[in-house]
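Internal tracking record. Fields below are filled automatically when a chain is submitted to the structure queue. Please do not edit lines marked as system-generated. If the sequence contains nonstandard residues, flag them in the REMARKS field before resubmitting.
Queue: standard
Priority: normal
Entity type: single polypeptide chain
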Amino acid sequence: MPLDVILLVLFGALLHATWNAIVKAGSDKSLDAALISAGGAVSALPFLAFLPLPHSAAWPFIGISAILQFAYFQLVAAAYRAGDIGLVYPLMRGCAPLLIAATSGFILKENLSAGALAGTVTICAGVLTLALEARRGSSRAVLLSLTNACVIASYTYVDGIGARISGNAVSYTLWMSLLPPVLLFSWAASQRGAVAVARHVRRNWWRGLIGGAGSIASYGLALWAMTKAPVATVAALRETAILFALVISITVFKEKASIWRYVAGVVIALGGLVLKLA
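SYSTEM-GENERATED OUTPUT FOLLOWS
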């Protein structure tokens, strides 16, 4: 994998960890997740006029992705309500690339080299190691996390293919971001009432704008990288976001770091090095 691709995916991982921290810190995780999705759409709007439309073959992928993204944001909020971030985040993010690595040969006909496969598995092992330090959790949290890992793997495939056939990965990403917030806010209004939703938006719009811009930029960088490198290796390298999440948890949330956090950090860094050398 070229160095410029690695660096941009790592920057995207930092942005991903940042918007997840915004959701975790929020008082209403479902509405904050919807706000971040909406913030991504708002951030995308000014650029659409300057980019070509995705090729017609990519539009079905955009529609399917929107539905999967709706499920993803709902599950993120539910999982963070049910369990500790030390359990939920590693399970969601660590299992997804393992699923992709195990199935990409069949679905995408991408055969990973031994080095790329070793790097992918090493990064995933490091991420999953963090689950060992979780002090709170439940069977519900585990079930929600594993379900979301399947959703993440599914939309990664959909968007990886869609970005490749769209003709422009950035354009695909921006158009793809428009529909999920419509679905999320429609659902929230039907469950909470329009007044309650509007009140939360009025008080927390800035959180959605900041987090949404980071979210769309993070995913756009990943989709661009998938046009330059195998989907499975990009998906695995993106999970180095957990390292940035660790720094945020210690410096911002003042969480105590167990030995497992440092072990996982070393293992993830080693996996990144293996990917670079593969």
